[in-house]
Amino acid sequence: AGRDRGDVGGSAFGRGWLWLSARWSGLGPGRHVSAALVSLYRGEGLLRWWLGVATHGVWSLFLVGATLGLLLAFSARAYGFVWETTILPVAVFERFVAMAGWLPSGFGFAVPDADLVRASGGQAATDESARRVWASWLFGCVFVYGLLPRLLLWAICFARFSAGRARARLDLAQPGYAKLLARLTPESERLGVTDAAPGRIETAHLSRAGVSGDDATVVGIELRQDANWPPRLGGQVRLVGVIETREQRKRVLAELGDHPPGRLLIVCDPRLSPDRGTLALIADLAAHSGRCRVWLRGGADAPDRERLGYWQEALVETGFAAEDVLLSESVALAWVEGS
To answer: Are 94 and 117 in contact, with CB atoms under 8 Å apart?
Structure first.
């Protein structure tokens, strides 16, 4: 209990905040989340800073409203400043005004001098410049001694709370966390097929009927960049780039749809696995050309012959002929260039 009071800092507003939070959180399913959050902050020593952010934030808003209200009142009406006393000499009020205005004067606020203080005794100042000096002094005192300290305290609490929250970690050694950890991250997990693949990718056509000509296009799919890319192509061959994102896929398909080439060479990396998305994209690209072949770039020297075989089998199942799957760079470039 002593630690809880230390975390709250003995603030009546903080204790009231926790009481209201407990009351409101108990009305819905969020009560467990609120209780866990308070417990985490208390364990990390962040509860006092969290309540400090809330407390000083609310008081800062109140003081901002008071400061703006004071400025509005001074702007809309004329006020006179009068000091009155029965037993105290005028020197006491002069020293008080000077001491209270010392710090605000550093921020540019005016401070009434001794003559102006004595002139305000018993009757309101009628001089317009005198009223402005008194208004500046009062406004400066409210700002420097009221609003500014609250803003500084709020900034300190917010900085300490943010830094502590970034370092906060759950104590997974506690019994409750250990039981929950076993459910969320089990030591072993049964693996299996969660989304069975279809027996064959459905494609309407692997080439567009009626498209002929000598124009040729080369497009890559998720290629790793190295010194051998892009290859040297003849003047009649157009390189549209490498497809890596959905936006690039839409752009390339739109370009091929507007100007379908007579020959299309699709370049793939056989070091990657031939997933269904890549095979479907290859089929879509092939449907926008008169003739299409797939070059498994580096396939002739690929160390993983088993994965290369997966590529060849998947492309044949997609609808390509075995001779349409090329492994040699020279053969692939000679075909697309029409040599």
So the answer is: yes
